[in-house]
Amino acid sequence: MQLDPQDELLLQSVGNSLGAKPPKAIGVAVSGGSDSTALLHLMHQWSGGTGVTLHAVTVDHGLRDAAAGEAKTVARICAGLGIDHSTLRWTGWDGKGNLQDQARRARYRLMAGWARERGIEMIALGHTVEDQAETFLMRLARGSGVDGLSGMATRRVSDGVTWVRPVLLQRRQDLRDYLQRHGVGWIDDPTNEDERFDRVKIRKAMQVLADLGLDADRLAGTAQDLQFARIALEQQTREAAERIATVENGDVVLDHMQYRRLPVEIGARLFSHALCWVSSAEYRPRRMALIDAEYSADIGKVSTLHGCLITANKNEIRITREYQAVKQTACPTDEIWDNRWQLIGPHEKGLELRAFGAKGLAQCPDWRATGMPRTSLLASPAVWRKDSLIAAPLAGLGNGWLTKPLFGLDHFISSIISH
Ligand SMILES: Nc1ncnc2c1ncn2[C@@H]1O[C@H](COP(=O)(O)OP(=O)(O)OP(=O)(O)O)[C@@H](O)[C@H]1O
């Protein structure tokens, strides 16, 4: 490819987003649309002479007849550029819930697994300014707050992979012009025109908004500002956690007097993070439910939310796993129970990890000597053989077993900052 000054600018921006010391192997997520096709070619141009090897990946969600053919087209383009390409197939659709959302989550999960298997630390995605602006408007329509409205980052770490967005500051049209300058085609996904999808309606609305000065750059700029605001709030929440939170046998305990002095937003963030951390929930509780739970804690009333039990007195607010939420959770003793507990001991077939519960309590008359609240013990892990309690180390019944929480206070605090 012959370079012109606009290509130089694009390449510079792509190179900057990959950092001063890019990893030796980088994945590129290519659907075959204009944005990711341009990304692939730009990264190919950029990588020449850097010693970086590119690996392209396409996910076939099996949702459209044309998808398999599109993946083959991407594979052919990659072969032409001498880039290794994989197609990953998703077959997990269970016919329930939001299809778009599930497909998207599956896509990220599959790509992260693919990268980890190959020792690829970084994957590049082809989001553009328009994607940033569309996401902002869609979230605004759903009533999102600072976090939801804050823009996609150019770099974030999740699932053991660093995701980068090298063309996040570029306009779609500039990427299409680049492809056209070099005679490269792309695949037009027909769902991009399907007005049943909110994103397509938003895209149409944006054409009208642009006349009012609300163009993609402006919306993306606001999303970026909110991202900085979100980072500042997370930082303050983290500092509050360092001052007032402790972790006791899997419970998060907040100093109640100090909690009352926190700014409302910081208190709500800390409370919500504690609930998610204890229950391993991916999503935050709803704002109204959270306000109710905070109010209950304030007046010392017991409440439940998000798979947690919240108890409070004037000294502390204690967020405990709720027994009801784990009473059906069972696994072999050498597996992780409730996403956060490991038991070390003489594993054996026929033994199972289940919640300690009232049945366990009845078999451990000395449980009070542990000093642990009854409600915390109920939802703690125990070793069972059918209905017989074999061990419950937290309740003082060791029998050669040890309970090991996978995460402690450090993890609680560090996971407040989203990466
Ligand atoms: N089927 C696919 N296979 C591989 N990569 C894909 C696929 N679909 C999307 N991508 C990657 O994700 C980028 C963004 O595409 P799109 O906006 O459709 O994705 P999204 O994940 O739904 O976005 P968002 O994170 O905003 O919801 C693409 O430029 C491409 O890099």
From TrEMBL:
One of the protein's GO biological processes: tRNA modification
EC number, as in UniProt: 6.3.4.19
Name under which the protein is recorded: tRNA(Ile)-lysidine synthase
Example of a GO cellular component annotation carried by this entry: cytoplasm
Catalytic activities: cytidine(34) in tRNA(Ile2) + L-lysine + ATP = lysidine(34) in tRNA(Ile2) + AMP + diphosphate + H(+)
Alphabetized CDD domains for the sequence: TilS_N
Pfam families xrefs: ATP_bind_3 (PF01171)
PANTHER family: TRNA(ILE)-LYSIDINE SYNTHASE-RELATED
